[in-house]
Input
Amino acid sequence: MALADRTLPCCCHALFAALLVLGSLPVLVGTAAAADSERASWKGSGQLSLLTASGNSRSKSGSVRFELINDWPEVDRITFTAGALYSESEGDKTAEAEYLTGRYDYFHTADTYSLYSLLVERDEFAGFDYRVTARVGLGHQLVKTDNDTLDVEAGFDYVYEEKEPEAEDFPAARLYGKYTHKFAEHISFLQDLEILENLSDTEDYRVNTLTALEVGLNSRLSFKTALTAKYDHQPVEGNQTLDYFTETALVLNF
Output
């Protein structure tokens, strides 16, 4: 099958099928083991940021993010996330990106879980029309107290990228860590770090980080400021290695 056909390789289809089968097994096991329990209701959040400027400079930017979570403590967790980013300066578009992901976590113990996810994203200014990532891995909650949590994850991805001059697909290794700290009842800090290594070309790796502070205004509304950095050691020709975004957003929990 030629890359020019713009279709996913057979091996990628096979991985998707394996991901589906593996992901369904814990669901069946968890359902049978906890048949007498009731699944928790869905919870979600919506995030919106918007900035405009006029006068000596004309610019506008904004981002949206939605997340739905169904967390069955010590059994499983289902998460769906979608988001978009747009920026324009002096009438010229300077950033545009969208993403959609679904993830299933199955807890083998109270602190150890396996994860299965599928991520679809598009980032014109990073040089790819779209990227599809199928992911499997293991995670462990190293720290879990009232004020602090520390999660670590390791696993494998299979990535397909549609970009110029040609599309490519490759396996990748993933390491991830996330730390959260609660300063007070309505004030929390988050720091995460993700390393993605192309196993077909070890010089091709990416590093993503998120630093965020969220202050609750009431039980449903909060104020969030965040810095996101994305490093690509081998970006598409003509692109820079580092992208970073700062945002101040209003978050609604429901």
